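Lab notebook: predicted structure, single chain.

Context: the supervisor wants predicted structures on file for every construct in the current expression panel, including those that have not yet been purified. This is the next one on the list. No modifications to the sequence; it matches the entry in the shared construct table.
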Amino acid sequence: MGKGRLEAFSDGVIAIIITIMVLEFKVPHTATFSALQAIWPVLLSYILSFIYIGIYWSNHHHLFNAKCCACKR
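Prediction complete. Output recorded below exactly as produced.
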């Protein structure tokens, strides 16, 4: 399996993970600030999880595009 195929596969897996995260997020019944205050722990954990997955994805792409020290000749 080539580098490009492995990178595309991992992109697909990360996209599925983010999609599942969004599907599990419950929308409050009313459009008020107090309704958001009731679910702030869930909202905060979703935001932190999304940031963590984004950092993982960014580092993964950097790893595949970086060259090792022996290759920099």
